[in-house]
Amino acid sequence: MSTWFKKPGDKVAVDEMICELETDKVTVEVPSPVAGTLLEIIATEGQTVAPNALLAQIAQGDSADSNEMRPTTISGAKLNEGQSDMSGKAVDVMVPTLGESVTEATVATWFKKVGDQVAQDEMLCELETDKVSVEVPSPVAGVLAEILAPEGATIDAKAKLAIITEGAAGAVSAPAAAPAAAAAAPAAAAPADAGRSDVEDAPSAKKAMAEAGISRDAVTGSGRDGRAMKEDVARATAAPAAAPAASVAPTPAVAPRAPSSAADAAREERVKMTRLRATIARRLKDAQNTAAMLTTYNEVDMKAIMDLRNEYKDAFEKKHKVKLGFMSFFVKACNHALKEVPEVNAEIDGGDIIYKNYVNMGVAVGTPNGLVVPVVRDADQLSFADIEKQIGELGARARDGKLTMNDMQGGTFTISNGGVYGSLMSSPILNPPQSGILGMHKIQDRPVVVGGQIVIRPMMYLALSYDHRIVDGKGAVTFLVRVKEALEDPRRLLMDL
């Protein structure tokens, strides 16, 4: 709302201008639909309203005191023929299903702004939950009439995100205003930049700037009042680097912890943790505080698997259309060991122990946003090829941020491969409520004794972290020895030995 020309109690004539609205394109005057008395102003000056919002009520008739007068509502349903036709049905955009254990989410990025045309199933915004990022598609084709949950807002799992006017036409700039806007752009650039300190950039843009390591001065905001959006950061990152702006460092965020010196403060950067990262931190600490966690180690000679893989990898890929990796051997070996030591595949629930007569194998995957653990369901029933295909698909979806809640839930045991990053040995942390996690590590040639002779073999350290409340030391060592035996002699898997 920009200006009200009338106040409650004033007489108004038919088509008399009673208020003025400002949009991001044009200024629109709102006429009175009837003659009468302005009873109530619903939308006050300075308030942001949707195209279908109620602006005021007018009592039709000669006197505002008459009991026979019929109140007439005034809305901004149709702002301007050149702006948008918002006369369609209003459709709510709700938070999609997030999963049984997820009760809230954070609005990360809006891809559309109010007044934009949207197609059915076109992505409107992105939500961040404790586990995954979720894209929200438009339920209908029309115009985005109102955004109810702005970027950075924490919302309930059943919240309303926006309102779409179904079938409405999208915003179109008035032709007459285009030349004036183009002429005014250079003159307006300086004041906009000058007042940019009062404009809050999109949280997604701040995050992208922090990840890209670029300053706010290098980004030209395309949002309202020069607000930086995520796509602006992408453009700035892709563009050739501009000449360095002297030695001016970005102003550090205000922090509770004071830096050791002014020089250090100029080189520090404070970025809010994403919901995923915060959840990872909380869950890992909870695992340490709750479980009686212990780790046992062993090492495995990988020569037999490497020879078998080299012999059959081409035929395997030709038949199954997927590469034969090491992970399927480890999943098979763990399935074999879990049958003998079922407590490693169990969990504690209050005063009960729940034994799982199936194996849903969690496979830890590193992503740009943090570690996630998608689940290969019924892994004990799958072939080598099925395991490789599912792990490949889940890994690709994890890196692209396309995992669903169903992909992340229900794991009974986890394998984490730190070897892909070069880790020689580590102690993995449990993924609650699971009672065991196997850590794989780097394959490294080492001298070992075989048959009384010192030979060079490709060796890998294995680590099993387990919950000592449910798994005894004997069970943990037995599990790890069975995994070692199956990997060093894969024929044991065929013979179920």
TrEMBL record:
CDD domains: lipoyl_domain (cd06849). Residues 194-269 are annotated as: Disordered. Residues 224-234 have a biased composition (Basic and acidic residues). Residues 200-237 form the Peripheral subunit-binding (PSBD) domain. Pathway: Amino-acid degradation; L-lysine degradation via saccharopine pathway; glutaryl-CoA from L-lysine: step 6/6. Pfam families: 2-oxoacid_dh (PF00198), Biotin_lipoyl (PF00364), E3_binding (PF02817). E2 component of the 2-oxoglutarate dehydrogenase (OGDH) complex which catalyzes the second step in the conversion of 2-oxoglutarate to succinyl-CoA and CO(2). This is Dihydrolipoyllysine-residue succinyltransferase component of 2-oxoglutarate dehydrogenase complex.
